[in-house]
Design brief:
Two copies of one chain form a homodimer.
Chain A: E1 18-23, H1 28-39, E2 44-51, E3 59-62, E4 65-71, H2 74-77, E5 82-85, H3 89-101, E6 105-108, E7 137-139, H4 143-156, E8 161-169, H5 177-191, E9 210-211, H6 224-237, E10 243-247, E11 249-250, E12 256-265, H7 271-279, E13 284-286, H8 298-301, E14 307-314, E15 323-331, H9 334-348
Parallel strand pairs in A: 1-2, 1-5, 2-4, 5-6, 6-7, 8-10, 13-14
Antiparallel strand pairs in A: 3-4, 8-12, 9-11, 12-15, 14-15
């Protein structure tokens, strides 16, 4: 079911104070959305916290007030200006078109509409102009793709990246709040010598790692997460020719994704020059202290807004001098999800 | 100081029952050496456990006997046939040449002699013939290099690998027993909400990861571990032209190293064919169940002898069809160190 993407949709949110709905408010990303709207003093006239029937009736704190969580419904979406969706693809497919018909602009964190040609897929630091073409729904990209692209973009825009090979180190938060809790609880059980079984995730997580648990496409051998990174990279960069190889791995880290990248550029590229480009880029922080062996780490990225990038050096496997290696880390719940969505919303404000 | 590598050194150990010394017996690799010698019923006539003065006086179990740990000395090395060194490079440089002069063959797990042209650097499944050229000392390779090369070799020997890009996921055990304990203890403190400071390692390890803590070479930007992987890959494969890019990262895993590899071959290569080569290879186990999303994991590799390999698929960033991606995991203390050393020793037996 496609949303009603009529060309009469508003480009910008016209009211200075907005009626905002968060769909999926009780999830890990939903809670982070609440925190970020509050931190950034977003123009909220009314905030509706929506969720599945299972979570309805709970209360969440926003700016010192306890707000009730309601079930998603036509009525609950009535009069909403901005709907931030942080639920699954099924919920987004069902409710995002109705929110649009009710007059809202939707920013959806699921993969439901990301590859729809009528839906912009946006990282505001990279392709803010794409927002202008929306017809009611704007998609928030995959979290691993956001972290990787934040680090690649300052290079790409000066010296087009033709090929990138990524290996990710993804945190529990990408699988939701229950996975974060499972990592903590099974790790505690392991340390106490108690037996435990994985529940939310398919494999043991305590002091272990595993290939990303999204389904493998038998035609390619790539899992769903890897396929998202490849396709979304092409769409965000508007570059169908960029060649992307990627391996997505879950590591026992709570809430920041990391990525090791090998980047081949159109022209020869110098690490010092790239370091300059990266240190000037908005939303990025260069953490590249070779003398003290201090580089991007999840513990430093967690809770922050910036993606950290470092380990900038030549790719020694490419003698042509066109390639660099680097390492980046970003908070999965913030820049990887909630913060990016709110940054898109900020661009819609008058 | 170079060892006395006189050409009269014996190629093989001549006695069926050997006097064996373990230098560095109380370390993580030393203890694993004891376990593996016992498991494999190695031909031990006498076992001498040697260590630094700090550890002398302790006792370790071997085959039901409590053996004393002595300080390394000329006397302690007297009459030794086989000396397994699992101490640092400094200890190896000081004592390995003396062990050789006392008549022993030395298998050294440190990096002290690995790049010495007179010293073979051996993974028995890959270059067993190199053992024959030893002059008293044989070097055991870096643990990350062993795990990566075990997975690459079955491809390389049929379709020469010209370029490989590696990202590692390395365990605490590579930094020694104290690092394993630090990972456990700081993780427990984190879960209990207690404060803690890193001791053995330079960074927070609980639910974190960091670039490998070996010193960065300012000339290249690569750390010591990465430089070892590059140089040792070339030496073990006897291929100075293979192009290697590598990023080494420590992850909060106790004792197995993993690696994501992108491999470019001389000729076009088919994933199914590579899967066949890998499933036939000695010391490797193919774990590549796409339907159930089951691939190599540290929890399955830990305590075992085999390196696990899977996620075999085309590298989608190379449209020429010459490249594959794969993922491998191996026990760092066993195949990455102690087991490989004992396998070398077994090849020296009559």
């Amino acid at each position: 079911m496609r949303p009603d993407l009529s060309p009469s949709r508003p480009f910008r949110l016209r009211r200075p104070q907005l009626v905002i709905a968060i769909v999926g408010a009780t999830g890990a990303v939903g809670k982070e959305l609440l925190r970020i709207l509050e931190e950034r003093r977003f123009a909220v006239a009314e905030l509706r916290l929506l969720a599945s029937p299972r979570s309805a009736g709970r209360r969440l704190d926003f700016a010192g007030e306890e707000l009730p969580v309601e079930e998603v419904s036509e009525t609950a979406l009535d009069g909403v200006d901005l709907a931030l969706f942080s639920a699954g693809s099924g919920t987004a497919r069902r409710w995002a078109p109705r929110a649009v018909r009710a007059g809202a602009v939707v920013i959806d964190n699921s993969s439901a509409f990301r590859l729809d040609p009528a839906v912009p897929l946006v990282v505001p630091e990279i392709n803010p102009d794409a927002i202008g073409s929306h017809s009611g729904i704007i998609a928030n990209p995959n979290c691993a793709a956001i972290v990787a692209l934040m680090a690649l973009w300052p290079i790409y825009r000066r010296n087009r990246v033709r090929r990138v090979i990524l290996a990710t180190y993804q945190s529990a938060s990408g699988a939701g709040a229950a996975a974060v809790e499972e990592l903590r609880e099974t790790t505690r059980a392991f340390l106490d010598g108690r037996s435990f079984a994985p529940q939310r995730l398919p494999h043991v997580y305590a002091f272990n790692l595993f290939s990303h648990d999204s389904a493998i496409d038998p035609a390619t051998g790539y899992n769903g997460e890897e396929t998202k990174v490849i396709n979304e990279t092409r769409k965000i960069l508007d570059d169908p020719d960029i060649r992307v190889g990627v391996t997505c791995v879950r590591v026992p880290v709570l809430r920041a994704h990391s990525v090791a990248a090998t980047v081949e550029c159109e022209w020869p590229v110098d690490p010092d020059m790239a370091r300059g480009w990266l240190s000037d880029a908005s939303g990025l922080r260069l953490v590249d202290d070779q003398a003290h062996n201090y580089f991007p780490m999840p513990v430093d990225a967690s809770g922050g807004d910036e993606v950290l990038v470092g380990r900038i050096r030549r790719d020694l496997s490419d003698p042509s001098g066109h390639s660099l290696a680097l390492f980046a880390t970003g908070d999965q719940l913030r820049k990887g999800a909630a913060l990016n969505a709110v940054q898109i919303a900020e661009r819609l404000l008058p």
